[in-house]
Amino acid sequence: MDSPAVAVATTALADRCRVSTQTVLLAATAAVLGSYSGHNTAVLQLIAVNRHDERSRRLIAAMAENALFAVDSGTGSFEELVRRTFLVGMNAYRHAQYDPLAMDEVLEEAKAASGGELDLSCFFNDKRMHDRWPGLPATDGSAEQLRALTEKTEVSCVGVWERQDATFFVHTAYEPDTCLLHLMADTRLVPRPEIERLLRSFETLLVESVAGTVALETLR
Fold this sequence. Notes:
Elements: E1 2-3, H1 4-17, H2 21-37, E2 41-47, H3 54-57, E3 66-72, H4 78-94, H5 100-114, E4 122-126, H6 143-149, E5 168-175, E6 178-185, H7 192-211
Parallel strand pairs: 2-4, 4-5
Antiparallel strand pairs: 1-6, 2-3, 5-6
Helix pairs in contact: 1-2, 1-7, 2-4, 2-7
């Protein structure tokens, strides 16, 4: 989805809540995922920068460790979710470096305790190197102008894969004047027409949250 309206609305919410635009987009991902899945807790893996020590910085190899993020996405307002997301996200990134064998043990213990498989196949990754969009279209911040801006939104399919290890993966790409939001989804669980509807629900949630308070319960 190519949406200048999302970029403008996300920036306004980030300023209002005093957080990064990444935090707002992560909160929106949690809200959309929680609403679609019917769960009050959204669980995502965050792609983390984790070369924090000298040993790992000198490693010439792929090194992928994800931060585990779980937030209440079903109660309160969206702005309250944004603020919760900031605290939970910071804690998730803080603990994103770990012994993978120890993690396997923790997951096995959790599996045994719950009596079922853990689904950790939903991801979020903000790939932008800049937190803000310097070339945003000028608006007065009113709901009317933001809603009018959604008429410029374009949704397209950029690729398909026969197999992936994720069922729901949101990531961003950078342009200076618009938000490029990608959703890769397993079509066995999320039919193709639903993918566009979910992308547009991101936009609606963010735009309407700038216009007024959006109760998360109304998204169910």
